[in-house]
């Protein structure tokens, strides 16, 4: 009886031992499978961490490139604007110079034209006066010829000495009258010349008045342009002072003296991003390991 019990207990113990061995084998297989899964998970996590780190590095690099391109674009825009302003100022100066030269040439041509007009008027008046003198001399010559002919006829007709004396006196009076008329004509010619000269002088006064007004307008224009240039110069001086202050500012990104420091700072930022990514990955891995340990304990 006792032998049966012992045999039965031994068989049960053997079964229990076999089940324990099977359970141990299952546990080992499960542990191996878990280790394999953990290895794959670590591998995936490392790959994910590498991808994330590369992504962050590429993102930061692209941001830096975008910032650099933006600064370059701003610099190029400023240079283009400066070139446009220079070209505009040069064009305005050229237009002003051409306008001034054109005005001077027009004034010179006006002066020449006025002078030619005055000379033409004087020539016409002289021609008129000479023609009038010639006609008068012709008339006078005809009168004298007629008088000489009449006197000759009267002499040949044996006129008395008294009548001849009166005739001679009359002839002298006629001659004096003619001389006075010539003097009057000369005075009239002189008056016409003076009137012509006065008219030319009045035209010159009008032209000089117009030139004076144009010069005054040019002076006002030059003053306004000078005032604009002074204001622009003040603005440029302010911009220059700001640029100098920015160049002396250690925080300025555009300062060439701090370019090396800026590069080091960028490298440290990239390193910090990499450390943050690794820290987050290790933190997640630690949490996962703790969770697995809790499950193993249960």
Automatic annotation (TrEMBL):
Keyword list (alphabetical) reads:
Coiled coil
Molecular function terms, GO-annotated:
kinetochore binding
UniProt signal peptide:
none
The terms describing its cellular component in GO are:
outer kinetochore; spindle pole
Decide whether keyword Coiled coil is in the record: yes
* Coiled-coil annotated spans: 99-133, 163-285
List, alphabetically, the InterPro entries matched. Spindly/BICDR_Dynein_Adapter (IPR051149)
Gene Ontology biological-process annotations: establishment of mitotic spindle orientation; mitotic metaphase chromosome alignment; protein localization to kinetochore
Keyword Coiled coil attributed: yes
The cross-references to PANTHER family, in alphabetical order and at most eight, read: BICD FAMILY-LIKE CARGO ADAPTER (PTHR32123), PROTEIN SPINDLY (PTHR32123:SF9)
Kindly provide the name given to this protein in its UniProt entry: Spindle apparatus coiled-coil protein 1
Write down the species: Molossus molossus
Show the taxonomic lineage. Eukaryota, Metazoa, Chordata, Craniata, Vertebrata
């Amino acid at each position: 009886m006792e032998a049966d019990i012992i045999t039965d207990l031994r068989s049960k113990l053997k079964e229990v031992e076999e089940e324990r061995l099977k359970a141990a084998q299952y546990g080992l297989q499960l542990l191996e499978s878990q280790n394999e899964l953990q290895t794959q998970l670590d591998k995936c996590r490392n790959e994910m961490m590498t991808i994330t780190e590369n992504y962050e590095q590429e993102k930061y690099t692209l941001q830096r490139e975008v910032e650099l391109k933006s600064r370059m674009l701003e610099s190029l825009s400023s240079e283009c604007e400066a070139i446009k302003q220079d070209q505009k100022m040069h064009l305005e100066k050229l237009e002003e110079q051409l306008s001034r030269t054109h005005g001077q040439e027009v004034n010179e041509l006006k002066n020449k034209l006025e002078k030619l007009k005055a000379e033409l008027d004087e020539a016409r008046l002289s021609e008129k006066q000479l023609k009038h003198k010639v006609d008068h001399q012709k008339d006078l010559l005809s009168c004298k010829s007629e008088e000489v002919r009449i006197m000759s006829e009267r002499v040949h007709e044996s006129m008395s000495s008294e009548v001849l004396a009166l005739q001679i006196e009359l002839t002298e009076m006629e001659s004096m009258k003619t001389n006075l008329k010539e003097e009057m004509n000369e005075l009239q010619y002189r008056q016409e010349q003076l009137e012509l000269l006065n008219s030319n002088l009045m035209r010159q006064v009008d032209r000089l008045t117009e030139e004076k007004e144009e010069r005054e307008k040019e002076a006002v224009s030059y003053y306004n342009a000078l005032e604009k240039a002074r204001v622009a110069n003040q603005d440029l001086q302010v911009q220059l002072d700001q640029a100098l202050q920015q160049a002396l500012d250690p925080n300025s990104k555009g300062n060439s003296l701090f370019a090396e420091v800026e590069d080091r700072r960028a490298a440290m930022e990239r390193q910090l991003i990499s450390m943050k990514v690794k820290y987050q990955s290790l933190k997640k891995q630690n949490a996962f390991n703790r969770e697995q340990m809790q499950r193993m304990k249960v």
